[in-house]
Structure formats: C-alpha cells, structure tokens
Design brief:
The chain has helices spanning 2-22, 28-34, 62-96, 101-127; strands spanning 39-44, 51-56, 129-134, 137-138. With 141 residues, the chain is α+β, with helices and mostly antiparallel strands. The longest helix has 35 residues, at 62-96.
C-alpha cells in the first residue's frame, strides 16, 4: 500500500510539473495574434485541479467548436493522467536504482518537457485546439 500511495503522490507531482512545461509562455495577446480566428475555452480539470484552457479553431457552428474543444479537453486529460503514472514509475525506478534524488528528478523533468510538447502537438493536430493554460500556468482568459 505505501508504494501505491507513493506512486499516486509522485504521479500528482508529475502532473503539476508537466503542466508547466506543456503550456506556452507567450501571453494571450501574443497567441491571439498568431491564431486570430481561435476561440478560448476553459474546462474544469479532474486531473490537475483548476481549469485547463485551449485556443480552438472555429468549426462550422459555435456549438460544433465547443464540442470539439470538450473532446480535446477529454483527450488531453487522458494524456496527462497516463503521463502522471509514467512519471511516478520512472522516478521510483530511478530512486530505487540508487540515483540521487536531484539527478533523478532532473532527468525525469527533461522527459516531461518532451512529452508535454508532443502531447500538446497531438491535441492540436487531432482537434485543432492548442492547450494554452493550466492551474497557475500559461495564459488565462
């Protein structure tokens, strides 16, 4: 049971650290200039707490755009949840193998940055919605 709890805590920490890496550092005005036709949507996050925000390309109707934004959100939360488990497993493995905590954390965080970019690009490509904010990070509406 303690190992399962440790994985959950580390998974939650992984979610928080990767959210910082997966949203752009540009401000909302900068993003609006780059994507002038996009609309901002924010949805409550069951994984990260707070809200996650997306800039989504328009669909034929506003309702269709909102539906696609919600689909993007659902898919992105699944990506975050899966990576939280991966983060916890990798960190516990590195620490168990004897890696110093700072070294293990730095290595895993580097992998988190790469994962976060790929996850955001996957959501953009599939749903034409770019993840742009999370709790305490990224642009806010």
């Amino acid at each position: 049971m303690p190992n399962r709890l440790n994985r959950r805590v580390l998974g939650a920490l992984g979610v928080v650290s990767l959210l910082g890496a997966c949203v752009p550092s540009a401000g909302l005005d900068d993003l609006k200039r780059s994507y002038p036709d996009r609309q901002m949507f924010q949805f409550p996050s069951r994984v990260a707490g707070g809200e996650l925000g997306y800039l989504c390309a328009p669909s034929v109707t506003p309702r269709a755009t909102k539906t696609r934004a919600l689909q993007a959100h659902t898919a992105y939360e699944a990506e975050i949840r899966a990576y939280g488990d991966t983060f916890a497993t990798a960190l516990i493995g590195a620490l168990t193998a004897g890696a110093p905590p700072k070294t293990a954390t730095r290595k895993i965080n580097g992998q988190s940055d790469a994962w976060a970019r790929q996850a955001a690009l996957k959501i953009e490509k599939t749903y034409q919605c770019l993840p742009v904010s999370g709790p305490g990070v990224g642009v806010q509406n």
